Amino acid sequence: MIRFEQVTKRYPDGTTAVDDLSFEVSEGELVTLVGPSGCGKTTTMMMVNRLIEPTSGRIFVGGEDIAAVDPVRLRRRIGYVIQQVGLFPHRTVLDNTATVPALLGWKRAKARARAAELLDLVGLDPRTYGPRYPQQLSGGQRQRVGVARALAADPPVLLMDEPFGAVDPVVREQLQDEFLRMQAAVRKTVLLVTHDIEEAVRLGDRIAVYGQGRIEQFDTPGAVLGAPATAYVAGFVGADRGLKRLSVTEIEPDDLEQPPVARGDEPAERAARRLRAEDARWAVVLDPGGDLRGWVGIDELAAGGTVGDLVHRMTAWVPVGAPLKQAFGVMLQHDAGWVAVLDGARFLGVLTPAKLHEALRRSVDADARGVTRGQAGFHSVSDA
Ligand SMILES: Nc1ncnc2c1ncn2[C@@H]1O[C@H](COP(=O)(O)OP(=O)(O)OP(=O)(O)O)[C@@H](O)[C@H]1O
Fold first, then answer.
1. Residue 374: inside a domain, yes or no?
2. For residue 349, what is the domain's CATH number?
3. Which tens digit of pLDDT belongs to each residue from 55-77?
4. What is this model's ipTM?
């Protein structure tokens, strides 16, 4: 969808901002450009909508060499989101969002209806926020309006330059999550510039790690974190690589342990006997269909009756396929020694800290060797 062929940009003062760059972004793919300040990320992005012209090389969008496309016509196909948002202060949020459709000559009612739909999509109720002016919004809300506005004319391509850079870390993470949900629905081809490797990893289907004017590695988040191509990339990705991998490694059924299980309709006394025999302190409680009901401790079973009368609700749980980081967060939040893993309502097993560590190590090891996680052997801490 976007293709760079040996693109170089040299500014008049002799600075080579981009040096012989070739890469391709597939349709519906989100590629993050990450690297330190001044490495050429913004220059790369601005060449796609011809706000900057390359010195040499060619850029294609949707198969067309953009050098031959009228810049105004080109920009209609490309949404553009920047950190400072650039909303018009004297226009309402709704009118700001409808800017591009209005420029394209849509009827006012149609442009406004579209704008309302997009505000809704980015999590702003158009009835509440549509009539407001930009200064009556928080930074995070303004940023959402910027995204809505860029999407208004339904462009196939979206360029985003540090789109979540101006807000605090909590709001930033929230905006990132919302954006990912939205992207799953709209599937735009996205180039997103960031200097934050965490953001690049969270958002990117693939990541381009920039050195000075060049891409040092262009690969999936897992590969960039697990198998940095150069010493430079390893340095940029940082020493806390394992921690970052928590975000990209998914929980798989093989990672789970099977704790003792009791049924809701089982007599408490029988369940207690079984737990004592297994030397276990608690059991997971399931209904006859295998769905999770909760958990019960051995001491409580002494009260008699059925297990179902004594069950506690299970708050520490995550869905299978969630990132290990989420499971780790739930463990900390609930001060739990394990978290239950569910497939829908069905109980699959529990993830313990030891199993979490094991999954993480296997994942790093698999990437380093270019194999899938299942093929990688596990090395325990003592082997390391
Ligand atoms: N108009 C210009 N004239 C001369 N040099 C420029 C111009 N614009 C950018 N540069 C230089 O080109 C290089 C790349 O700049 P660019 O803005 O693409 O970097 P970046 O990776 O986006 O950085 P940042 O994260 O700080 O925005 C830098 O050395 C910058 O100083």
1. no
2. 3.10.580.10
3. 999 999 999 999 999 998 898 88
4. 0.93
